[in-house]
Amino acid sequence: MACIQDQHTYTPTNCKGGTVLDLSGADNRSITGFHAHGGPNQSVMH
């Protein structure tokens, strides 16, 4: 189980597919799986 800490940034990853959660830049609403590129749309802060 992951230990989530406050004020840390995380990149949720699909271990089976190797993709990460990616917020669409087109509408800033849609979330897809995409290859990791380190952009701010692929990380979440807790």
UniProtKB/TrEMBL annotation:
What is the protein's name according to its record?
Uncharacterized protein
Give the species.
Rhizopogon vesiculosus
Lineage of source species: Eukaryota, Fungi, Dikarya, Basidiomycota, Agaricomycotina
